[in-house]
């Protein structure tokens, strides 16, 4: 097994996904009957449970088949902005990690850059392992809208946003771990009264955006999520979920619950600060759970879904897709099947990830077991809201930019909602959803 780091800056967004629609790429590439290796591109945090699971699967796969696995680590930006260029070239990998959602995997499917996985789903029974909302993010219709009829990707893990609490800081100031939204706000106020900025959140990337969406999910329901993600009805841009969340972010900035220097912070900054014990509260993705389990040495911590959440921010994890131009599709599918095996799924769970097909009883780490049970309960109740930038490709960059202006005060909450409204409508219009 070989792992190589991708090099070079990402190409300009203007040359990304949508302009390639005219290039066309359909048709199967000639297949190698007996490949000596397969190539996999991914951007997952290498220390995460899921990434470790993929590496373990590679060792098992090579022992079973004699086929080597060459990994290349890309950045999220490289894949998100340039996925279509990568997949439309003769250097396309055999398996690629792809962001899920209409604006990512959905667009790639409409460009005929991804393999229809139906034969492999039937051969290996993946639909018996990956079900419900976990399956929805891997299936797209002819318009590229998720929860369709065609499998273009498979999630081997899940993820969600949780609130991580530094229990030692809560104990130091005699503040209880919150179980309700009102208790959460009371904790923010109490920490600030002691001169402590309570919430770690970055605005240079996605931290404030994700906090905003989870705040909206304290007021939203499944219909709101369907309207946002699946275009079932027009989004009401002055609805309670959106106005409450946007006004609350501004209010928490004004009160000092979120640091005003968030505009200069990236996700790694806030993650490292929480690990060092700087902040008592950090909402982040469960991909950081493994890091906290292994790197937090100076204090005890606990975590849970955001207090008062009706819907939970998250979904099944990024997809493993097989590019249409791969010449080793059968081997690639066999590798994915190993990833979905009980051995690898249980391993992902014990390493702090959220497996989609594990035996819960086989997950022995208490923190990992709590996480898996919490996700499973929310997913089984269809409470997962996905992420706010899924509806269109442009939102991945446009939404964080809008929240930078909210945090630094150059736009009011109403102006930010107007900006988001325009970005959303512009992005969805580019998808040409009426063209079947």
Automatic annotation (TrEMBL):
Instruction: Reply yes or no: does the keyword Transcription apply.
Output: no
Fetch the InterPro entries from UniProt: Bact_solute-bd_prot1 (IPR050490), SBP (IPR006059)
For this UniProt entry, which residues form the secretion signal?
A: 1-21
Q: What is its main location?
A: other
* Keywords for this protein: Signal, Transport
Q: Which SUPFAM superfamilies does this UniProt record tie to the protein?
A: Periplasmic binding protein-like II
Where is the protein found, in the record's own terms? Cell envelope
> What Pfam family does this protein match (any one)?
SBP_bac_1
Q: Which family does it belong to?
A: Belongs to the bacterial solute-binding protein 1 family.
Q: What is this protein called?
A: Carbohydrate ABC transporter substrate-binding protein
- The source organism is Bifidobacterium polysaccharolyticum
């Amino acid at each position: 097994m070989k792992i190589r780091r991708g090099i070079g800056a990402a190409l300009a967004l203007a040359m990304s996904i949508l302009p390639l629609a005219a290039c066309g790429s359909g048709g199967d590439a000639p297949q190698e009957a007996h490949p000596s290796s397969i190539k996999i591109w991914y951007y997952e945090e290498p220390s995460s449970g899921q990434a470790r699971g993929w590496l373990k699967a590679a060792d098992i796969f090579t022992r079973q088949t004699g086929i080597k696995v060459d990994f290349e680590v890309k950045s999220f930006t490289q894949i998100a902005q340039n996925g279509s260029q990568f997949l439309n070239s003769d250097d396309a990998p055999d398996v690629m990690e792809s962001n899920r959602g209409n604006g990512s995997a959905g667009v790639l499917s409409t460009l005929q850059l991804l393999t229809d996985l139906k034969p492999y789903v039937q051969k290996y029974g993946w639909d018996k392992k990956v079900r419900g909302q976990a399956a929805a993010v891997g299936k797209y219709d002819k318009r590229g809208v998720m929860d369709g009829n065609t499998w273009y990707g498979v999630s081997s893990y899940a993820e969600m946003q949780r609130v991580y609490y530094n229990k030692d800081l809560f104990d130091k100031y005699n503040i209880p771990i919150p179980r309700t939204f009102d208790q959460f706000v009371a904790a923010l106020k109490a920490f600030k009264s002691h001169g402590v900025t309570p919430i770690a959140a970055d605005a240079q990337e996605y931290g404030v955006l994700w906090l905003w969406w989870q705040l909206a999910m304290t007021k939203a329901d499944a219909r709101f999520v369907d309207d946002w993600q699946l275009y079932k009805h027009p989004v009401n841009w002055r609805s309670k979920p959106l106005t409450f969340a946007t006004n609350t972010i501004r209010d928490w900035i004004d009160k000092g619950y979120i640091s005003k220097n968030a505009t200069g912070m990236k996700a790694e900054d806030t993650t490292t600060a929480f690990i060092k014990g700087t902040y008592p509260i950090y909402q982040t993705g469960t991909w950081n759970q493994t890091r906290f389990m292994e790197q937090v040495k100076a204090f005890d911590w606990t975590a849970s879904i955001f207090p008062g959440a009706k819907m939970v921010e998250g979904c099944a994890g990024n997809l493993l897709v097989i590019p249409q131009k791969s010449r080793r599709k059968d081997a690639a599918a066999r590798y994915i099947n190993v990833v979905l095996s009980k051995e690898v799924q249980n391993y992902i769970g014990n390493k702090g990830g959220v497996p989609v097909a594990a035996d819960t009883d086989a997950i022995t780490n208490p923190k990992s077991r709590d996480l898996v049970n919490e996700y499973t309960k929310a997913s089984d109740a269809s409470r997962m809201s996905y992420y706010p930038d899924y509806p269109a490709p442009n939102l991945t960059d446009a939404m964080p930019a809008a929240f930078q202006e909210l945090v630094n005060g150059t736009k009011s909450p109403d102006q930010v909602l107007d900006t988001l409204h325009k970005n959303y409508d512009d992005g969805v219009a580019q998808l040409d959803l009426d063209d079947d």
